[in-house]
TrEMBL record:
It comes from Solanum tuberosum (Potato). It comes from the Eukaryota. This is Tellurite resistance protein tehA. It is found in: Cell membrane; Endomembrane system. It holds the Pfam family SLAC1. Belongs to the SLAC1 S-type anion channel family. Its main location: membrane. Residues 78-93 have a biased composition (Polar residues). InterPro entries: SLAC/SLAH, SLAC1/Mae1/Ssu1/TehA, Voltage-dep_anion_channel_sf. It is a multi-pass membrane protein. Residues 31-110 are annotated as: Disordered. Residues 41-50, 68-77 have a biased composition (Low complexity). The chain crosses the membrane at residues 184-206, 226-245, 266-286, 292-309, 330-347, 353-371, 383-402, 414-433, 440-459, 471-497.
Length: 555
């Protein structure tokens, strides 16, 4: 209607004539339809954002009308310039909404996923230096994440469950995203060194088959030892390199694995693998190793034992009765393997020292694991192969004592018979190792089985008969078939199926538990509510007490 809700004067209405085409253009923009927008004339194309409903406040037809009209005292040239500038960014023909402007290349880098930055403790500065060398634009330095803090050990027990402490409780949450697969380095666990343990122990076994007098009738060539040793050395280099990258770029993840009460045992695996490589070195490469190598390899094992055994003995949350697990055998086996290598080099006191330390802690741990003092929980099926670690320590201890004493005496036979009995007691339980998904825990089969086979070869040198020779051949064959099958299966799962390394939930727990507040009427919280009401303003208190009936009062 004319002059209804209008601020324009009559002269402006007379001077300005709104043609029929412009009215259709304004109506099409207000309704957002496509057909009406195509009917706009080229001279009157104006991109105006209108509210879809009349509920928006402060926006009406008068504002559009006033913007399109020519104010008094101005020329139409200025309005034409303004309209032309609007037309340049207007909606193209055939579309309803204008296209979003393309962001510069530098701005798109800021949209990358930064949810994993809390684990990049040392890599932030290194990545910026590498980017600077490549000539890339530097991103602003972000503040350190509050998640980079040392997690106390009791937090692992509160947030995780299961014998291996690798399952998140239902009431907890992790600090890394659950909706996507994490970077490979974050999913690469320290337990991957179990592959090196299995393959390098095979090199020792085939070296003994080729050089032992009791197995000369097999005519085993030393080339098998050379090939296995080269493969194990290559695996050791590759896995160590990958984990070194994780140490550099995701140091927080490595630190969390180290503080994990179960994962800390696997930090012995790299050094035990190096000891195996030293024991299985082919004679074509070298026949005598320098004794300094033994001190270099045993020093980190000694440092780890000082920390771990001290925690077992001192008590607290990391006491042995609480963290006891078959994986603890890895921290014990290193003593016996080191004693075996040192005695083979001609050393005396050092090997006896580590043998005594390993024997004392093995007895305590063996009893603790048999009783299952922590929770009396059984291991899940995926971790049943870890039980074969029971065989590793006594079998290696028998060989170490044989090398120290120079003969397979009664002490060596006692340790060997314990290992042989544990081996048979696990082997007859076939259903115990069936019906579960493949994982890295399967590599726990290989190294203890190979140790028992090598100890049997040593025993057949003393007790030479058909039974001992057949037993040595059977155990060596089973060990070889197991390692070969697991190596092929691991390659398939790692490179074909790509499901070998799932998200490592155990390293992504938060420092503090998830806080939830629950209120229940009639519970102990009612006392707190009554205490609070005493200090409320009298007027408010009367209103609250009048509207709420105490649960203990009669109706």
């Amino acid at each position: 209607m004319k002059r209804f809700d209008s601020i324009l004067e009559d002269t402006d209405l007379i001077d300005y004539k709104l043609d029929q085409t412009r009215c259709r253009s304004l109506n099409s923009l207000a309704t957002g339809t496509k057909g009406a927008a195509e009917q706009q004339s080229d001279t009157s194309t104006i991109s105006i954002s209108m509210p879809p409903t009349p509920s928006s406040k402060g926006v009406g037809f008068n504002e559009i009308y006033s913007q399109t009209s020519t104010p008094r005292g101005t020329t139409t040239t200025q309005n034409n310039k303004r309209i032309s500038s609007y037309s340049q960014t207007s909606t193209p023909r055939g579309t309803v909404f204008p296209e979003s402007p393309k962001l510069p290349r530098s701005n798109t880098n800021k949209l990358k996923d930064t949810r994993f930055d809390s684990f990049k403790t040392w890599s932030g500065r290194l990545e910026r230096q590498l980017s600077a060398l490549r000539g890339k634009e530097q991103e602003p330095i972000s503040q350190p994440s509050p998640h980079i803090e040392t997690i106390p050990v009791d937090r692992y027990f509160d947030a995780l469950e299961g014998p291996e402490l690798d399952t998140l409780r239902a009431s907890e949450e992790i600090i890394l995203p659950e909706d996507r697969k994490w970077p490979f380095l974050l999913r690469f666990p320290i337990s991957s060194f179990g592959i090196c343990l299995g393959v390098s122990s095979q090199a020792i076994m085939w070296k003994n088959l080729a050089t032992s007098a009791s197995t000369n009738f097999l005519h085993v060539s030393l080339k098998a030892n050379l090939g296995l040793w080269c493969i194990s050395a290559a695996l050791m280099i590759i896995i160590s390199f990958v984990y070194a990258l994780k140490f550099i770029f995701y140091f927080e993840a490595v630190r969390r694995e180290y503080y994990h009460p179960i994962r800390v045992n696997f930090f012995f695996a790299p050094f035990i693998s190096l000891l195996f490589l030293a024991l299985g070195v082919p004679t074509s490469i070298t026949q005598h190793l320098h004794t300094s190598l033994w001190y270099i390899l045993m020093f980190p094992i000694f440092c780890l034992e000082l920390k771990l055994y001290g925690q077992w003995m001192s008590g607290g949350q990391r006491r042995l009765s609480k963290v006891a697990n078959p994986s603890n055998h890895l921290s014990i086996v290193g003593n016996f393997v080191g004693a075996l290598l040192g005695a083979s080099m001609g050393l005396k006191e050092g090997p006896i020292f580590f043998f005594a330390v390993g024997l004392a802690h093995y007895i305590v741990m063996f009893v603790t694991l048999y009783q299952r003092l922590p929770t009396n929980d059984t291991l899940p099926k995926e971790l049943h192969p870890v039980f074969f670690l029971f065989v590793a320590a006594p079998s290696v201890a028998s060989m170490a004592w044989t090398t120290i004493q120079g003969s397979f005496d009664h002490g060596s036979r006692i340790a060997y018979f314990i290992a042989l009995f544990l081996y048979f007691s696990l082997a007859v339980r076939i259903n115990f190792f069936r019906g579960f998904k493949f994982s890295l825990a399967w590599w726990a089969y290989t190294f203890p089985m190979t140790g028992a086979a090598i100890a049997t070869i040593k025993y057949s040198l003393v007790v030479t008969n058909l039974v001992t020779k057949c037993l040595a051949i059977i155990l060596c064959g089973l060990s070889t078939l197991t390692v070969t099958g697991l190596l092929v299966t691991t390659i398939i799962h790692a490179f074909v199926l790509r499901d070998l390394f799932p998200n490592d939930i155990a390293i992504a727990i938060s420092k503090r538990p998830k806080t939830t507040r629950k209120w229940y009427l009639g519970s102990s919280h009612s006392k707190d509510i009554d205490q609070y009401l005493k200090f409320v303003d009298s007027f408010q208190a009367k209103d609250i007490e009048a509207s709420i009936t105490h649960p203990n009062s009669s109706n």
